[in-house]
Amino acid sequence: MASLIVARAGMLTTVQDRGRWGYQGLGVPVAGPMDWYSHALANRLAGNASDAAALEVTLIGPELVAEGDVVCVLAGADFDVTVDGTSVPGHQPFTAHSGSHVRVGTRRAGARGTLAVRGGLDLPATFGSRATHLVSGMGPFGGRALRPGDRLAIGTATLTVLPTTGHSAAQNCECPGSGAPLTLPRGGATVRVVAAAHRERFTDAAWRALTGARFIVTPQSDRMGYRLEGPALSHVRGADILSEPMPVGAIQVPSSGQPILLMADRQTTGGYATIANVITADLPLAGQLAPGDWIEFAPCTHDEAIAALRARHTSLAGLSV
Amino acid sequence: MDARLLRAGDAAWLVELPERIDPVVNARAIDIASRVRGAELAPVLDVVVGYRSVMVYLDPMHDGADGIEARLRSIVAEPPADTVARGTSVEVPVCYDGGFGPDLPDVAAFARCAVGEVIERHLAVEYRVFVVGFVPGFAYMAPVDPRIAAPRRTTPRVRVPRGSVAIAAGQTGIYPADTPGGWNLIGRTPLRPYAPDRSEPFLFQPGDRVRFTRMSASEYRGRTEWGDA
Predict the structure, then answer these.
(1) What does the pLDDT read at residue A169?
(2) Whole-number Cα distances in Å, A257 to A114, A196, A253, A283, B71
(3) Which domain holds residue B51?
């Protein structure tokens, strides 16, 4: 069985799939990719099901050594990727022959990439998922980020015909030659929001400030959530609520008035009122932000949110071979 | 009981019940959640209970997603179960000695009583698990005797040892893992709220009834599940 061996781990490289759904009622967080669209895209370009397990790389990528020939695709952020020193483009399958070094360097734009391998990562599942949740230590490798020496076994589950042995896999596999990459944010992004169930707990001035001002992603931001800095958002009657389940994309506002955007590793429940929710279609844009970037929130309707999500799925479906 | 059905973003519905910490309200939330789970609605990904709410997560791209609102409205409109499920009874031994309760003096100062009385009052009540959340297996339990219901600590600890039994803002709970935390630590239990290697990995479910019993430091060391105490 082919595998990838971690030579250098990069800044924060984790195994992710679509997330651990169905156990939030027992306190088990979902986790999953910060940019679900690029995760699905990388997998589709590699000939996998959209939700196969792949690597999420962050800001500075890992160096991996192939054991056996491995077909890889990097989607999402624009990283400098080389195979034994030769550059390879993003959003296209490339073959790492046995013994070669795949190096994901620094990013030119965006913050996170998905490195998918044809066949998917074949690692132990916990509650039906291979997603890594760092804080609760759940997922492959005890739920931690990758370290040098880790061995990533590669599976054989693909949607398309496997390449003929002895030929260049990238030429022979039925992988589409190009994809529909996410338009990466440059220094910041405008994401669309719908009003949250708790909108009435905030003043109208707070809503105008949320949707009219620019917020900065502070250094206190990670896969759990982004602490944002901007105008304070005022509550009508206090920030605290009885602990309640919180969806990804929820914008929580503690009593300081400085919002927190809940991301992939969010806790299952929260105790602060939420003013708005980033729409599913625009979560990938938020996932490509790094500390220091700006974020703006543009209100939209539920129907617009669903139409935007449908457009993303159409873009992925157009890749079927 | 009033119930509101609200959108929570484009991929979830929130059922909101009256806003109070009340076993009757919470039991209704558990009842609604179990009806939604039992309906096995194809677009639904997860059903999660809060103190007074139920969040229903769904895949908005699923063919049946448009029909979910009507299904949830009809489930919420069904008459509540006549008999509320009592929940499992769980006994949790706690060692309040041996330095396991570093915040006992602060809670005693808040309550204007002796440390021994704080412990007695914590032991005297049967608690209800209202919510399981935060991290795997963490149970939010209430009611805590108002006399000892100290608020959260002003500065949260960077690392609370797993197994710590804590109280804050009228709630009590057990930290299942080493995590940051702002609750007052009053003891330590040898039981693991989440144990992936156990046949039933999760010790608590919403609706369970919990009683704490006192154990000595030597008893604690004799029967710890953590393997490192």
Answers:
(1) 40
(2) 34, 16, 6, 22, 36
(3) 4-77
Say if residue A128 is in the same domain as residue A226: no
A281 vs A249: CA distance, rounded Å: 10
Per-residue pLDDT of A244-267, as tens digits, reads 999 999 999 998 999 999 999 999
Asked whether residue A105 is domain-assigned, the answer is yes
Interface test with B, best of A17, A30, A136 (most B CBs within 10 A): A136
Report chain B residues whose CB lies below 8 A from the CB of A245.
14, 48-50, 53-55, 133
ipTM above threshold 0.85: yes
Contact B205 A29 (CB under 8 A): no
How far apart, in whole angstroms, are the C-alpha atoms of residue B127 and residue B183?
17
Average pLDDT, chain A: 92
CB A32, CB A15: distance < 8 Å: no
Distance from CA of A83 to the nearest CA of B (A): 37
User: Could you give phi then psi for residue A317, rounded to 5 degrees?
Assistant: -65, -30
In a domain, residue B228? The reply is no
Q: Are B65 and B165 in a shared domain?
A: no
Residue in the block written with tokens 């959340």: B133
Give residues 25 to 54 of A whose Cβ lies within 8 Å of B. Answer: 25-30
User: Which positions in chain A touch B194 (Cβ < 8 Å)?
Assistant: 27
List, as ranges, residues 264-303 from A with C-beta within 8 Å of B: 267-269, 274, 277-280, 302
CB contact under 8 A, B46 and A309: no
Instruction: Encode burial over A164-188: b for 16+ CB neighbours within 10 A, e otherwise.
Output: eeeeebbebbebbeebbbbebbeeb
CA distances, A111 to each of A7, A58, A284, B198 (Å): 21, 6, 11, 39
Decide if B186 is inside a domain: yes
Task: Please indicate, yes or no, whether residues B70 and B99 belong to a single structural domain of this protein.
Answer: no
Task: Specify if B229 maps to a domain.
Answer: no
Tell if the CB–CB gap between A25 and B177 is shorter than 8 Å: no
In a domain, B82, yes or no: no
Asked if A151 and A198 sit in the same domain, the reply is no
Regarding whether A194 and A157 lie in a shared domain, the answer is: no
Cross-strand pairs, A226: A221, A261
Amino acid A41: pLDDT: 96
* Pairs across A and B, CB distance < 8 A: 124
A135 inside 8 A of chain B by CB: yes
Number of domains in chain A: 2
Domain that holds residue A134: 3-172
Q: What is the CATH number of the domain that holds B16?
A: 3.30.1360.40
Residues A218 and A298 in one domain: yes
Q: Say yes or no: A305 and A194 in one domain.
A: yes
Any A CB within 8 A of B48 CB: yes
Contact A25 B196 (CB under 8 A): no
pLDDT in tens, A124-150: 999 999 999 998 899 999 999 999 999
Q: Could you report the per-residue pLDDT of B51-69, keeping only the tens digit for each?
A: 999 999 999 999 999 999 9
